[in-house]
């Protein structure tokens, strides 16, 4: 078996888009920062989102059955930090930017690069994490023109090759 620290150090070199995952419904409004998001299939359009099973809001995401993947722009590093900060209440986190809703009822960040409004179709428990398979109900494109990725334990802005961030 591979050493956990060796695995974590190797995974730090696999860059990922930074997102804020949100939910709302009977179990309440919650959100967290994630980079463990990827496409599964385009028919039907489906994403997967990984969330630690020990997270205080894991049960609420499952109970609500809906979530929104809000892809952050290069200027949203502080917002990513807010949604990762366990010392902040959910009200404080959500107060950091503007929100609306689409079909699922999950909070949709108005300034995101893109929003994927989803219903949780399946959940698999693997080791320390829940894997949410999310069927996309709607997509909203924002106005941003650069992205935010997490690579080698640091944030980086990603821009089109024709311009500088």
UniProtKB/TrEMBL annotation:
Family matches, as Gene3D superfamilies: Electron Transport, Fmn-binding Protein, Chain A
Record domain Flavin reductase like: where: 11-157
Keyword terms: Oxidoreductase
Domain of life: Bacteria
Organism of provenance: Pseudomonas piscis
Keyword Oxidoreductase part of the UniProt annotation: yes
Protein name as annotated: Flavin reductase
């Amino acid at each position: 078996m591979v050493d956990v620290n060796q695995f974590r150090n190797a995974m730090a070199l696999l860059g990922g888009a930074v997102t804020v995952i949100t939910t709302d419904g009977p179990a309440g409004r919650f959100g967290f920062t994630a980079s463990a998001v990827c496409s599964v299939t385009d028919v039907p359009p489906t994403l997967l989102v990984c969330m630690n099973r020990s997270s205080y809001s894991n049960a609420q995401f499952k109970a609500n059955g809906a979530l929104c993947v809000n892809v952050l722009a290069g200027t949203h590093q502080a917002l990513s930090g807010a949604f990762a900060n366990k010392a902040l209440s959910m009200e404080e986190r959500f107060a950091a930017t503007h929100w609306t809703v689409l079909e699922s009822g999950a909070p949709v960040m108005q300034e995101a690069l893109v929003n994927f409004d989803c219903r949780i179709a399946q959940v698999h428990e693997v080791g320390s994490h829940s894997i949410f398979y999310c069927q996309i109900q709607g997509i909203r494109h924002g106005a941003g023109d650069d992205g935010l990725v997490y690579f080698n334990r640091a944030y980086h802005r990603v821009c089109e090759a024709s311009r500088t961030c």
